[in-house]
Structures are given as structure tokens and as C-alpha cells.
Amino acid sequence: MERVYNFSAGPACLPQEVLELAQKDFISYGGTGMNVMEMSHRSKEYQDIIDTADADLRELLNIPDNYDVLFLQGGASMQFAMVPLNLMTKHKKVHAVNTGMWSKKAIAEAKKFGEVNVVASSEDKTFSYIPELKAEMFTPDADYVHITSNNTIYGTKFSHIPDVGSLPLVSDMSSCILSEEINVADYGLIYAGAQKNIGPAGVTIVIVRKDLVENAPEDIPTMLRYKTHADNGSMFNTPPTYAIYIAGLVFKHLKKLGGVGQMELINKEKAEMLYEFLDNSTMFSATVEPKYRSLMNVPFVTGNEELDKKFVAEAKKAGMVNLKGHRSVGGMRASIYNAMPEEGVRSLVAFMAEFEAHNI
Fold first, then answer.
1. I need a surface site. Which of 167, 212, 215, 328 has the fewest CB within 10 A?
2. Residue 302 CB: number of other CB atoms within 10 A?
3. Could you give the angle at which helices 342-359 and 305-317 cross, rounded to 10 degrees?
4. Which one of the listed residues 68, 143, 196, 324 is annotated catalytic?
5. Would you call 143 a catalytic residue per the annotation?
6. Residue 172 a catalytic site member
């Protein structure tokens, strides 16, 4: 069966090698006579799967020992509530940076639990840039600072993290986790829905400093308390077992390729290839200012809605799918996560050049 190049923003493409490994073990994983989906999460076999996934993720991101790694459910959207429930405890206040739809949703949810001080926003220019942030914006009368490291819809990213002093920095990394090296110790909490750059939908990764876990109030709902999951190895209840299994295969795949540092080099090459074409095209143009451009999500337009539609339709016929931009911004968007091979980006650039030649 022929594979397409899937530029979806999520659920997104997975490494073919991972899919083939899962296919090989689909009927009987490791000689158990069962698919992982059928396996008890209390079994030794499954415990090995989740323990290995935890260890491999810790190795890939060099996660310090004073951080818990949690495999949760509910997507990043659940974290919009879990974060303030667990962390907005002393001052009942959070500093937030508004850089897109997902940060707006995180801000709206946090307002249900306390005060949200939006220190800066890029909404004035349709979130096409990251606002300038200064240390004095982040006063100590808040419980934490919230950012969205990579903005999936608008194609912007933080090129460096803000100076927030001693406040815990919380980041939604759903669309950029594992794509470039980070220092986990710079953050109090990182969360990421898996369906963009890790694995299938259904599991959400949370990396959280242990003191923040321990200091959460005891009167919040049991399932929404990080300590519940930390104390039970992410298995207080039945976890998304198969999604965690596939995520674990992805972690092993990334280690085999050379780790996050090597992926960063590859991702920069892929992104530069696409942005270079867009910056020199007479038909297509990127929508984000160069210094804020994402490595993962590349929005672009022709300036003509009918031409955009024609491009998306013809690209699909050529085996390049899910290039339509988010409904809120239109145009096109190529999501080029870790699993998108370099050949996929080369094929897209070649197709764009051909489309331009025939439609100018």
C-alpha cells in the first residue's frame, strides 16, 4: 500500500519504522499471544512497557531526578485546568503570554481559578510574532508563568525562554516537544498532547517538578491532582495503554536516530528548505516574521483563496495531504514534525515550484 506525505497538524504522521514494529507485534506482543490493547495494565509485561517509555523519555530530554514524568489523559486541554488547580495555590494569580488560540484557551480556563495577568499579546497582528518580554513584567506576586512554546496554528515559536526570575515557568509544548534541545530544569512544568510530535492521540505527557506536585492542595478532585498520578506511576486508573506503547516505540526510534540534538539539526534543515523556497517564491509567501518562525508548523498563502484551494486539492492528488490551513486563518500549513522525512519536504517544495510555474 502506498503511503502519502501527511502534513497534518495532529493527529500527525508517525515514523514508518514505528508503524512496522507495531504491525509486527499487533497480533501477539512479545510472545504473549495478546495485542498491547488487550493486555492488563497491571501485568508485568505492561509494567515493562511503561517503565521503559519513562526511562527513554528521561534520557532523551535529560530530565533531572527531581521531576516526575506522568502519562495522563485529556489532552493539553485538560492541562489548561489541571495546571491552575495544582499550581495556582498561594497568590491565586498567574502571568501569561498570549500568542495564539491555545494560549487563549489556557488563559480562559485559568481565569476560573484566579487572576490572570496577560503580560503581553501578539493578537494585534493575528499572532504572527512573539511579543517582546522583559523580566520586570513577571512580578513575584504570582504562582507561575504560562507560555505556549510553539503555536501550531500560527506557526510561531519562542526562540528563547523569558526571564521569569524564581517563578515556575509552565509551557505547553504539544507541537514542539522532542524537536529541539531544551533544559528541562528551566521549567516548573511542561505538558504536551502526544498526537503531534510523539505518538497517537490519547496520551498527554506532563513533566513536573516534584515540589510543585507535593505542594498542591488536597481538596482538588482526585483525578485532577498530579500527586495522584505521580504516587501511582501514572496507573491510578487504566492509562491509555496502546498510546503509551506507541510513544515508547517513538522514543526508542529517536534514540536510534541520535537523540533530540540530532533531530534538531534535521528539523532545522527541513524548515530552512521550505522557508527558503517561500521567501524566494513569486506566488507563495510565509505568514510569520523570520525571527519567530516555527520549525514544526509552516503556514503560507498565495494571497488568492481560490488558488489556495486549487493548490490543496492538487497537492492531495500528488500524495501530499492535510495542507489546508486552520479554519481560523485559511491558506495552507505544512506541519513538518520529527516523523516527516526530509524527502517529504523536498517533494512539497518541488510540487510548489511546479504549481507556481503552471499557475502564474
1. 328
2. 21
3. 130
4. 196
5. no
6. yes
